[in-house]
Amino acid sequence: LDVTCLEPLTTLIAMDVRDRRFTAARQRADAALAIDRDNPQLVLLSAKLALAAGDRRLAEAQLRRVIDLDPFASEGFTLLARLFRGEQRLRSAAEEFGALAERNPLSLAVRLMAAVAVDAAGDDAAAEQRYRDILKSQPRAVLAAKNLARIYLRRGESLDVAEQLASTAAEQLPADADVLDTLGSIYLRRLRYGAAVRSFERAVVIAPDNA
Description:
The chain is an all-alpha fold. Helix content is 78%, strand content 0%. The chain has 12 helices and no strands. The longest helix is centred in the N-terminal third of the chain and has 14 residues, at 22-35.
């Protein structure tokens, strides 16, 4: 009745992909986008389908569009960074988005992608500085908050700040198992075992198949 209705559309496309019916899945995704082409969730679904079908060029184009449409959604950034890593393009991507960020300092999407790219490339210091700069002007940038918290956790420093960042991210993304896992790990490092268990349990409920 409504080809843009996300939940049943996602389920049908997942069934098509499972059965290797990529043409049928693409027709469903394209039909939805023809009606609502600026819906970031539909564009993200189309990008995931392209990744499943092995169409990296389309996936990259769609993920870049997701980021432009909704710079506060974290999954598009994560998937694009994963794609760049798989193609060994993280360094070039970091340079590309870094240059774009200098030319477009008011673009949250570009600044976030530059930070995610250097983060994924393993440059903690540069990523930390970029995330901190973003949060100064955009405190609602959840992706910056949770990734900065993860950097502090990884280095075992500023854990009080990391907890505050991860807690803020968890409040804005209560169904994000990754955020809850980060928060639980911070609690564990700070010896707050009860809070850690509760956070991990919530993450497991959301993502029961995540080993």
